[in-house]
Design a protein that fits this description.
691 residues, alpha+beta, Nucleotidyltransferase, domain 5, Dna Topoisomerase Vi A Subunit, Chain: A, domain 2, nine-stranded mixed β-sheet, 35 strands, hydrolase, N-methylhydantoinase (ATP-hydrolyzing) activity, Hydantoinase_A
Length: 691
């Protein structure tokens, strides 16, 4: 038997999905933040122990190891070699003000301290002509310095190396012979803009050793267990095949060897799995324009797509540091089920950015002491304390209420008096927590859509993650979105998404020139060069030529602009650019010269993926066994008798009138008063306002 395992390691829970070609098994475990590979291995063992025999299996997972290393400042000690005279590019940056009206704007620390940034005598022109050959003797004199400083990894970023990488190749070979892990900018990001290229290369170098250690530790433990549980034949098969793949932030997956070359591709990879799953669900349901909202325990991630095109960007940022890799456009905010509630110095209620995480977690998990969004839902009656995670975790309602009362008495005495007593004060506090959280998420959705000339009212809202379904109706009402979609297994959606992803690699090459100056054959030659490189890489990933797909894009701008619009390559490029510019910025100028900036290639290796099972459409009335019972739930501080349903007992065609709560193993979904939900043939919930 062949099985595929999808894993998503989040800040609060680690989610597992196993697909054996016919059925799906699910598992949700608390994340192990100190050694994430331990939680990964233990979950895989628990799931695979149910199989007596296996012919082969594949693991695909999104990891936050690289992301956390950057955010926590725990990357490998790294040195930077750059063109002499440009040692401070990394520190100067772009001079953008993150807080426009802040009198004393803060700046993130430079990724590499000044004493580890070295200038090398060499120079190449923007056309790629060598005007000063590299002096490797100057590099050789610095080796003792690197050893003295215990440098583990080296980044190399020379000026105009994207036009001619000969000097980077020479120094890269020299340093690798000395035993260092080396990241070369022309291999990591072969584009102009030296700051973004340097920052991207440095980030890649910093997390390279961290990712390598994580992968080596995970693979070593897996190999030992596979040999003892299933025998050496399966172990030999796993060693030969790319059985362990990693999710990338561009929406594709890649083998361990591919990730070792470019570990930065793992940054923000977890949320990308959810967007890929959402796109697959949308295709099956015939939805063209979808905003996605993934609300987990620590954060909420927002993205969107129109048709087959998921929104992508090359202007990534993590912890205040820029990186230029092609990634899915995802806006992350610190608003999750575990976001901690506090009162600021001015007496205003705040939610986040700190999170209770998996340990101690929310109050209702039994150990936490701080109020969280999850606790507020429990106070309002929206969570079943006996059915959380299918009954694996019993929520402590009494303790949660006591700590809410204590919070109100200590920090909100005037509010209690205004509301008319402690009970109303607690309910009002819980509702206020949800209102603030909804406002933060609504702003994130507006930022993703309105800033790009799109109206959220023209989209459907797909909510997932363990907490997404709790907020869908509130967000749709606030933004005027007509339809909410809650897919099956929403709390495991990102782990499902990695099993719905293909192998994807991105390639780029910068060439700044007037569009009209190009002959079609010259543009073809650029793309053919990128395709040759892509074909070689996909073959190394085990993808035959019959399953290789290539998409061509060009970044364009009006001459004199400092920003670009990326468009699919076509013979109508000029017209399409003017139209897109007007859609995005409200104007276009047909008289202005259009420049090319970067040629891009997206290479896809199509792999066999799971499909969504279809169910028969039956009657509107749910089966009696689907109804758990009716209990009081608060909506906007008013108590409503609310029906609770077990989602696994619902059938296609069932119609549920709000207020209602639909519970399942991985999540809970709320149907507000005035809304109704229907179940489609794939088991998805479609929620809309009653007419």
């Amino acid at each position: 038997m062949f099985v595929r395992i999808g894993v998503d390691i989040g800040g609060t829970f680690t989610d597992f999905v196993v697909y054996d070609g016919g059925s799906i098994q699910r598992l949700k475990r608390r994340s192990t933040s100190v050694r994430p590979e331990e939680g990964l291995i233990e979950g895989i063992k628990e799931l695979l122990n149910s199989f007596d025999r296996l012919s082969a299996f594949e693991i695909v997972h999104g990891t936050t190891v690289g992301t956390n290393a950057i955010l926590e400042g725990k990357g490998a000690k790294t040195a930077l070699f750059t063109t002499k005279g440009f040692e401070d590019v990394l520190e100067i940056g772009r001079q953008n003000r993150r807080s426009l009206y802040k009198l004393g704007p803060s700046k993130v620390p430079c990724l590499i301290p000044r004493h580890l940034r070295f200038g090398v005598p060499e120079r190449v022109t923007k056309e790629g002509e060598v005007i000063e050959a590299i002096d490797l003797s100057a590099v050789d004199t610095l080796i003792d310095k690197l050893k003295e400083e215990q440098v583990e990894s080296v980044a190399v970023s020379f000026l105009f190396s994207f036009a001619n990488p000969i000097h980077e190749k020479k120094i890269g070979l020299f340093l690798r012979q000395k035993g260092y892990q080396v990241s070369l900018s022309h291999e990591i990001l072969s584009e102009y803009r030296e700051y973004e290229r340097t920052s991207t290369t440095v980030l890649n170098a910093m997390i390279g050793p961290v990712i390598s250690r994580y992968l080596e530790g995970a693979l070593k433990s897996l190999y030992q267990w596979i040999a003892s549980r299933f025998g050496h034949r399966l172990l030999s098969h796993c060693r030969r095949k790319s059985f362990f793949r990693i999710m990338q932030s561009n929406g594709g997956i890649l083998s361990v060897d591919g990730i070792r070359k470019k570990p930065l591709l793992t940054i923000l990879s977890g949320p990308a799995g959810g967007v890929c799953a959402a796109a697959a669900v949308a295709r099956s349901c015939g939805l063209e324009r979808v905003v996605t909202l993934d609300m987990g325990g620590t954060s909420t991630d927002v993205s969107f797509f129109v048709g087959e095109e998921m929104d992508r960007t090359t202007e990534g940022e993590i912890g205040g540091y820029a990186f230029g890799s092609s990634i899915l456009s995802i806006k992350s905010i610190a608003a999750g089920g575990g976001s901690i509630v506090r009162v600021d110095a001015g007496g205003a209620l705040r939610v986040g950015p700190q999170s209770a995480g998996s340990d101690p977690g929310p109050i209702c998990y039994g150990k936490g002491e701080c109020l969280t969004v999850t606790d507020a839902h429990l106070i309002l009656g929206r969570l079943l304390d006996t059915f959380f995670l299918g009954g694996q975790l019993r929520l402590d309602r009494q303790r949660t209420w006591q700590l809410f009362e204590q919070f109100c008495q200590q920090k909100m005495a005037e509010y209690i008096q205004k509301e008319g007593g402690i009970e109303k004060g607690v309910i009002g506090l819980a509702q206020g927590i949800l209102d603030i959280t909804n406002l933060q998420m609504a702003k994130a959705i507006e930022l993703m859509t309105v800033s790009k000339g799109l109206d959220p009212r023209d989209f459907s809202l797909m909510v997932y993650g363990g907490a997404g379904g709790l907020h869908g109706c509130d967000l749709a009402e606030a933004l005027g979105i007509p339809l909410i979609v809650v897919p099956r297994d929403p709390g495991l959606f990102c782990s499902l998404g990695v099993l719905l992803s293909d192998v994807v690699k991105d390639y780029s090459f910068s060439c700044i020139r007037s569009l009209e100056a190009f002959e079609e054959e010259e543009i073809e030659s650029f793309f053919r060069k990128l395709e040759r490189e892509a074909k070689k890489d996909l073959e190394e990933e085990g993808i035959p030529s019959s399953r290789q797909l290539f998409s061509r894009y060009i970044d364009l701008r009006y001459k004199g602009q400092s920003f670009e619009i990326s468009l699919p390559y076509s013979t109508r490029l000029e017209r399409e650019f003017h139209q897109k510019h007007e859609e995005r910025f409200g104007y276009c100028d047909w008289s202005r010269t259009i420049e090319t900036v970067t040629f891009r290639l997206k290479a896809v290796g199509v792999i066999d993926k799971m499909t969504f099972p279809r169910y028969p459409i039956l009657g509107e009335t749910p089966r009696p066994e689907a109804l758990i019972g009716t209990m009081p739930v608060y909506f906007q501080k008013k108590q409503w008798p609310t029906s609770f349903y077990l989602r696994e007992k619902l059938e296609g065609g069932n119609r549920i009138v709000g207020p209602a709560i639909i519970v399942e193993y991985s999540a809970t979904s709320v149907v507000n008063p005035g809304f109704e939900a229907t179940v489609d043939c794939y088991g998805n919930l479609f929620i809309s306002k009653r007419t």
